[in-house]
Amino acid sequence: MLSKFSLMNILLCGLLLYSAQAFGQEDEEVDEEKAAYAKAVVAGHEAMLKNEYTEAVSAYSEAKELDPGNADSFYFLACAHMAAGDVEKAEEDFKTAINVAGSKRHDVHAKCLFNLAYLEESKKAWEDAKKAWDAYIAFAGSHQDIPVYVENAKARIKAIDDAKALDEKYQAVRKRIADREAINKK
Hints:
Blueprint: H1 4-23, H2 32-49, H3 53-66, H4 71-84, H5 87-101, H6 106-122, H7 126-142, H8 150-169, H9 171-185
Helix pairs in contact: 1-2, 1-4, 2-3, 3-4, 4-5, 4-6, 5-6, 6-7, 7-8
């Protein structure tokens, strides 16, 4: 499984690249509301870089309030909740980001599906994680216009299957240890 440090590096790189993409739209005029939104998102990114997750959640929540129709707001907020260890809120915000993204933002949808699968793994909900990875693979297969990581998803499913097989093999060992401990206590 990924270490917390590795996960944070992945999240931060993704957030920064994603922000550059989201803010790089030169066609749109920048008004005060968009500037306030951008300021809140940048404050969230800066907080994430400093591992100040409470501040990041606060900043991304402000961005969400400023532009509730922007799927990025919910995606960033979900990442902050995930980094802070609040799995339930992260899951809720990833799902909201998918709904807000609709059929217009396949990139957000794919990133949210990837993270939802990872969250299932972090809960050790192996069957749900496999289903989530399968959903990611299916979405990626039907949306080849976006960068996706199908091989990573397949590797995660294999890792889950391998871990489950290993766990089954160790059932007998755990039983022998428990039996031995019960005898020793008598």
